[in-house]
């Protein structure tokens, strides 16, 4: 047995294995995934991809894997109220388990949505899709998710079906059990010429100190259009690790918005594979950290075919002793001529103790390409502060206004008005003096 730090997940698997969905074949895959995790253990800072993010806190904890959600309907409703109102279709998960009594009706032509537990029980091939289309299988965090995923959702959209009404997947972590660990798996397949708008949102009760380890797989068929929003706003005591795996066919378009505000430690890995000619992806991101928060974004985009396009635009706001990490890697493979890849990471430090480690990367193995990347780190502009002060704003309000403006262009890219307004209010709520400038404008 490996001596790598694995917390108590090996005995936890024996405790919950019989309650996890799937037949003997799925269970065999789960055990194989757990063995991969046991061999490597949690990533350490000796691993280049985790050089600036420590998992030591996770490895020291005693985790209780969630296999049911037993809190009352009233308490669950109170917990998800913090997520904001939602009038459209949604699926709600409490402590990683689907709650039909909290979810809204989801019915549309060409759209099939099933809780993961039900899909595993009825679909003999779901275990093949569970692997993530061959991406990241060596990742210990993805392997850990594969071993323990008790629920989630499987979404299939038929060819030619376009859905413009956003679907929300809401995951609520409660403080019901100390050290709760949940492992949602979201599997999305969008057919040829189809469309989907999806919001993946994570919230938690203020005292929740759990661990969320989630994997989302999106396959965009030929000519498909997918817009994906991912909002992480968990408890400041929680740990959150997410993986987004995207595979795209010819002419498909994917837009992803990653918005991270919560958790004590948050890590988001995004891996996009542009497997079809003329496919394109846009990755937008906004992250905030204050106090002792640590937020890490790692992205990788593989351009495999000619004429593919990618754009990354990430911004970070870091205050207190908050620390941010951004690593964006673009790989242009041989024969991927006429690739257009642009990447930008900009960071605003609000205190002398805040930190950011940013590393944009390009690997180019083809000719006739257009690629660029850049990163900036700075503080609020003193001349701009002086100008606003001279117009009558208090210093705290002036700082809040400039910080809010820094985030504004990322918010402006969000295509759902009610989500954009809610996030704008959340950001303003974290800025001292914001109430004054909101009244002023």
Q: How far apart, in Å, are the first and last alpha carbons?
A: 62 Å
Low-confidence stretches: 132-136
How helical, in percent, are the residues? 10-25%
| Largest pleated sheet | 11 strands, mixed
Number of domains: 2
Residue-averaged pLDDT, rounded? 91
Number of helices: 11
Strand content: 35-45%
Query: How much is the radius of gyration in Å?
Result: 21 Å
Count of extended strands: 21
Overall 3D geometry? globular
Question: In terms of structural class, how would the helical and strand content be classed?
Answer: alpha/beta
Q: Can you tell me about this structure?
A:
The protein is of the alpha/beta class. It has helices spanning 9-16, 24-40, 56-60, 73-81, 116-122, 126-129, 140-148, 382-390, 395-411, 417-429, 434-440, and strands at residues 64-65, 90-94, 97-98, 111-115, 152-157, 167-173, 180-182, 185-190, 195-204, 211-220, 225-233, 239-248, 253-260, 265-274, 280-289, 294-303, 309-318, 323-332, 340-349, 355-364, 370-378. Strands 1, 4, 5, 7, 8, 10, 12, 14, 16, 18 and 20 form an 11-stranded mixed sheet that branches. It has a 10-stranded mixed sheet with strand order 3-2-6-9-11-13-15-17-19-21, with helices on one face. A hairpin with a 2-residue loop joins β2 and β3. α9 packs across α11 (434-440). The protein is globular, with a radius of gyration of 21 Å. The model is unreliable at 132-136 (pLDDT under 50).
């Amino acid at each position: 047995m490996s001596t790598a730090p694995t917390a108590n997940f090996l005995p936890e698997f024996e405790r919950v294995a019989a309650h996890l969905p799937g037949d003997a074949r799925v269970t065999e895959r789960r055990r194989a995934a757990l063995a991969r995790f046991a061999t490597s253990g949690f990533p350490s800072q000796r691993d280049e991809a985790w050089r600036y993010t420590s998992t030591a806190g996770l490895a020291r904890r005693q985790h209780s894997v969630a296999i049911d959600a037993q809190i009352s309907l009233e308490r669950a409703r109170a917990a998800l109220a913090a997520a904001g109102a939602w009038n459209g279709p949604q699926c709600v998960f409490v402590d990683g388990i689907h709650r039909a009594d909290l979810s809204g009706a989801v019915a549309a032509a060409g759209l099939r949505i099933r809780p993961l537990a039900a899909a595993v029980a009825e679909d003999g091939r779901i275990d093949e899709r569970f692997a993530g289309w061959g991406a990241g299988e060596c990742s210990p965090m993805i392997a850990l998710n594969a071993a323990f995923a008790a629920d989630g959702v499987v979404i299939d959209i038929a060819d030619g079906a376009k859905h413009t009404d956003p679907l929300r997947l809401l995951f609520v972590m409660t403080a019901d059990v100390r050290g709760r660990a949940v492992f949602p798996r979201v599997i999305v397949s969008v057919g040829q010429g189809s469309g989907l708008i999806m919001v993946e949102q994570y919230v938690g009760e203020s005292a929740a100190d759990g661990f969320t380890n989630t994997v989302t797989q999106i396959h965009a068929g030929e000519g498909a259009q997918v817009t994906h929003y991912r909002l992480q706003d968990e408890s400041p005591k929680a740990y959150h690790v997410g993986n987004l795996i995207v595979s795209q066919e010819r002419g498909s378009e994917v837009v992803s918005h990653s918005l991270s505000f919560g958790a004590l430690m948050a890590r988001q890995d995004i891996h996009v594979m542009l497997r079809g000619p003329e496919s394109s992806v846009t990755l937008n991101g906004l992250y905030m950290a204050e106090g002792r928060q640590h937020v890490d974004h790692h992205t990788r985009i593989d351009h495999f075919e000619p004429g593919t396009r990618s754009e990354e635009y990430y911004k970070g706001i870091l205050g207190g002793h908050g620390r941010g990490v951004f690593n964006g890697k673009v790989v242009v493979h041989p024969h991927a001529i006429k690739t257009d890849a642009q990447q930008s990471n900009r960071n605003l430090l609000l205190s002398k103790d805040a930190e950011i480690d940013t590393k944009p990367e390009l690997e180019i193995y083809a000719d006739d390409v257009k690629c660029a990347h850049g990163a900036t780190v700075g503080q609020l502009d003193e001349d701009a502060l002086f100008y606003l002060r001279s117009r009558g704003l208090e210093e705290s309000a002036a700082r809040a206004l400039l910080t809010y403006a820094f985030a504004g262009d990322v918010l402006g890219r969000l295509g759902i008005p009610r989500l954009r307004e809610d996030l704008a209010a959340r950001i303003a709520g974290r800025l001292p003096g914001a109430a004054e400038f909101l009244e002023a404008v």
